[in-house]
Design a protein that fits this description.
Layout: H1 21-24, H2 37-44, H3 54-57, H4 65-73, H5 77-84, H6 91-97, H7 119-133, E1 148-152, H8 156-167, E2 171-175, H9 184-187, H10 196-208, E3 212-214, H11 225-230, E4 235-238, E5 244-245, E6 258-260, H12 261-270, E7 288-292, H13 296-307, E8 312-317, H14 328-337, E9 340-343, E10 345-352, E11 358-371, E12 377-381, E13 387-390, E14 393-396, E15 400-401, H15 405-409, E16 435-437, H16 440-443, H17 448-468
Parallel strand pairs: 1-2, 1-4, 2-3, 4-16, 6-14, 7-8, 7-14, 8-9
Antiparallel strand pairs: 5-15, 10-11, 11-12, 11-13
Length: 479
């Protein structure tokens, strides 16, 4: 361990071993293998243990990052995961899918001269160490308060709110519309990036803390929010996510073989179409796949298409590579696996064959103008630049809107013009007394860790409301 005696900046950032790209592009097994204990300790010794701890300020769920890393450096792995779970009930998930490079790692002091500490990889290591060693410890909960809270949606924001409220001693019930718990973690993120067994293991900790989980319960249909209050719940947290897919709205979009990313990934991930006929949900056979979009969902879709047998799999994105919101690691993994990229292009219409199946898409080349409201340069069409790309699978991954079901059934809830629930700020109080909301249903489609941070903020506000009964909110008018 001589390398540990070097100064932190002299130790190179430790790489994670991965499957060979040619091999992994044909299977759904997880791509990285994770750190060994020895490698994790070397990486942990790169941490400067800063007094000001900018990485903690950059973490939406306020993990004591220097604290858990110091324990790894000392070889105290169980103590490290215990420190982690003081703030985060989903460490194995966050270690895999959170954009640390834009949050905690981007503010790491080492970045002034070197690469940042691999915080996400270390988080994954200690979570995997605990699970694989069979030493999973269940967080303690406070004595029962006699209060009941309903959580609607079992995605990252709902799971985090449930964890915090259960620790406070409240009786928590999660209502999930689908047949499996996890929300976007199980239907949206592929097995090769987040194995579903890991999601189930982390959700199981909540059950052992006393959280009740009811699947196949569509709130807004089985029960309304008013019904839940009548059934004895003292507060409700809405974490229903952004599950309404956006479409291109161009001619030919109804041809067979054109999917929203939601349907495509749900079929593959949650309903295991990749293992047909062992599972009875099929997916169409194809050879030439195109995916529209530049975010993580687009990358998940195009990499999934390769694993399903596509001979070519191409991202069509209307901006340049620089503007792509997808994680750099996911883009690099895709390139290694053979994904092709067409930048500065936008689809204008689809063509179909005599059987109504998509066979090609016409696109228009773009150039970048001035920045728009997102801060990225606006794509502008170049007249006369049309070209045609053959495809027999097209996946639209250009974003999602708010799940509208509960809002339609609950006129008391104020929403904005996009259908997102309006709240009074981070606390998540809505216009309906006793109802809180957070995550994508409030801010639009975002990241797992931001949704978790919203769940934490609302859990604190719910606890305060249950203690005081006070409900003073200032919700803006619909806009």
């Amino acid at each position: 361990m001589a390398e540990q005696r070097k100064k932190p900046g002299e130790i190179p950032r430790q790489k994670m071993p991965e499957q060979d790209p040619k091999v992994r592009a044909k299977n759904f097994n997880e791509v990285p293998f994770g750190y060994s204990p020895e490698t994790a300790m070397i990486e942990a010794n790169r941490c400067l243990q800063c007094v000001k701890q900018p990485c903690v300020a950059g973490c939406p769920v306020e993990i004591d990052i220097p604290g858990f890393i110091k324990l790894i450096a000392e070889g105290k792995f169980q103590e490290s995961i215990n420190k982690m779970k003081e703030k985060n009930i989903l460490p194995a998930i966050c270690g895999r899918v959170c954009p640390q490079e834009d949050q905690c790692e981007i503010v790491c002091v080492l970045t002034k001269k070197f690469e940042p500490v691999a915080i996400g990889r270390l988080e994954r290591f200690v979570a995997d160490y605990e699970r694989e060693s069979g030493t999973v410890e269940i967080p303690s909960v406070a004595p029962p308060t006699g209060k009941k809270v309903a959580i609607v949606g079992s995605g990252p924001t709902g799971l985090t709110a449930a964890f915090d409220l259960a620790k406070m001693g409240h009786k928590v019930t999660i209502f999930e519309a689908l047949h499996e718990t996890g929300g976007v973690l199980v239907y949206g993120i592929p097995e090769f990036r987040l194995p579903k067994a890991i999601v189930r293991a982390e959700v199981d900790v909540l059950r052992k803390m006393g959280v009740e989980i009811k699947v196949d319960h569509i709130i807004g249909k089985i029960f309304t929010l008013t019904d839940l209050f009548k059934r004895g719940y003292d507060a409700i947290y809405l974490g229903t996510g952004a599950g309404l897919p956006y479409f291109l709205n161009i001619p030919g979009e109804n041809y067979i073989g054109i999917y929203s990313a939601n349907e495509f990934l749900t079929r593959i991930n949650l309903m295991r179409a990749f293992d047909f006929p062992n599972y009875d949900t099929p997916v169409l056979k194809f050879k030439k796949a195109v995916v529209f979009g530049g975010g993580n969902v687009a990358m998940d879709s195009v990499r999934t298409s390769l694993r399903l047998g596509a001979e070519t799999a191409t991202i069509l994105y209307r901006r340049s590579r620089k503007e792509m919101p997808a994680r750099i690691e996911e883009v690099e993994h895709g390139e290694e696996e053979g994904v092709k990229f067409e930048f500065l292009v936008a689809p204008t219409r689809f063509f179909g064959d005599e059987n109504g199946h998509v066979k090609a898409v016409e696109c228009l080349r773009m150039e970048l103008g001035e920045p728009d409201s997102s801060g990225r340069r606006r794509p502008i069409p170049i007249p006369g630049s049309e070209f045609v790309t053959e495809c027999d699978l097209a996946v639209v991954a250009i974003g999602n809107g708010a799940n509208p079901l509960i809002q339609k059934e609950t006129p008391e809830l104020k929403t904005n013009k996009w259908g997102n629930i309006l709240t009074d700020g981070p606390a998540g109080r809505t216009s309906m007394k006793g109802v809180f909301a957070g995550g994508d249903i409030v801010i639009g489609a975002a990241t797992v860790i931001l949704a978790m941070g919203a769940g934490r903020n609302s859990a604190r506000a719910i606890d305060e409301y249950l203690k005081t009964g006070e409900w003073n909110v200032n919700i803006p008018d619909k806009n």
